Amino acid sequence: MRRKHERHPRKPAPEPARDPDPVVSADPGAPEAPDAALAASEAAGGTALTEPAPEAVQRLESQTADLEKQVAEWKDRALRTAADLDNYRRRAIRERDEALGRGQSEVLNRIIEVVDDLARVAHLDPANTSSQALHEGMLAIERKFQRMLETSGVERIDPAGAVFDPTAHEAVTMMPAPGPEADNTVGAVFQPGYRLRGTLLRPARVAVMRWTAPADLVH
Question: Which end of the chain is least crowded, N or C, by CB within 10 Å?
């Protein structure tokens, strides 16, 4: 009998041995890696970029002294400016008060002159003075007083016959107008008004005329 040959599984062929990773020799001319270059730089010159502590303190103290000097100079300027402003304000107030006092003195001196004229008329002897002379004397005093007011910048408002102006006139009463053209005009002045350099001191007290059409004209 033939012996059956037993079949044995074939063993896999051995793989070729791999060479280990080749060692790359460092090229002297090749650039270094960034990390390596940074580490080398820090190791070689890092201490040269750092300022020594005593010198840094001295530099900061010098800068602080300069800033303190500048602050002191600006503070001194501010104080001087505030003092000049306060002196100017006081001088302006003093000059204003002096100008106001001079203006009041001038007006009062003129009023005193009119008062003197009134005193002379008041002390006239009635037995030796006619009524006509008294009347003329009072008219002269009135004209003098009006000139004094005009010189002081006071304007007299006497709107007889003018159109009624509510900003300068005060309507005390109403009166009939003779015709339609006289409607809303001043028919009588009970008391004149006065204006000082455009500012109303007192409105004129007046009677305003109103036109009412007759009944026969209405129909």
Answer: N
Domain ranges, ordered by start, for the chain: 57-152, 155-218
Per-residue pLDDT of the chain (219 residues; tens, 9 = 90+): 444 444 545 555 555 555 544 444 445 444 444 455 445 445 544 444 576 788 888 889 899 999 999 999 999 999 999 999 999 999 999 999 999 999 889 888 989 999 999 999 888 888 888 999 889 999 999 999 999 899 888 999 999 999 999 999 999 999 999 999 999 999 999 999 999 999 999 999 999 999 988 776 655
* Cβ-proximal residues to 118 (8 Å cutoff; 6+ apart), any chain: 141
Architecture field, domain 155-218: Roll (2.30)
